[in-house]
Amino acid sequence: MNRRQILFIGCLLTSLLNFAQNDIFNIARSGSVADVQTLMKIDSDTINAVNDKGFTALTLACYHENEAVALYLLNHVNNVNGVSKYGTPLMAAVFKEQVVLTKALLEKGANPNIADVNKTTPLHYAVLLKNKTLIELLLDANVDRTLRDSRDKTALDYALMDDNKAIIELLKK
């Protein structure tokens, strides 16, 4: 090989690696598992990248309800919690009322007590959304019911404000 060929191949590989780092976030939003696997052949660690807003691909897949990609990433990422100021993958799954993703994340060890920048936890969101299934999943995962958000409210406080007897009963068990 001559220098030009080596230089060309080097530039091509660099471009592909940059593409992989930047494009994993778009794929997380609306791509397929095959797309993720293609990027992982170029750079297996691309799925652990964090974008400029602090999001991981797993968090974005959960927020964009890309269940197949989220489930794939969940089984391959280094950190299922992927903390950003906008929350975690678990928070995203709860916020989007994705029961399958919430359950899978909890089974993989996602921490249900990590709060976002407003100190809001997945349990707060589940209560505000009045989603008993998600509340039950979080309670089964030993979520801390005493955590307070930036308004100094617990999840139970929100249930009491809404006078949602079924949810109040769940939270008081």
From TrEMBL:
Q: Which UniProt keywords apply?
A: ANK repeat, Repeat, Signal
The ANK repeat units are at: 85-117, 118-150
Indicate whether Repeat appears among the record's keywords.
yes
Which positions make up the signal peptide?
1-20
Annotated Gene3D superfamilies: Ankyrin repeat-containing domain
Q: Name one Pfam family in it.
A: Ank
This chain belongs to the protein called Ankyrin repeat domain protein
Lineage runs: Bacteria, Pseudomonadati, Bacteroidota, Flavobacteriia, Flavobacteriales
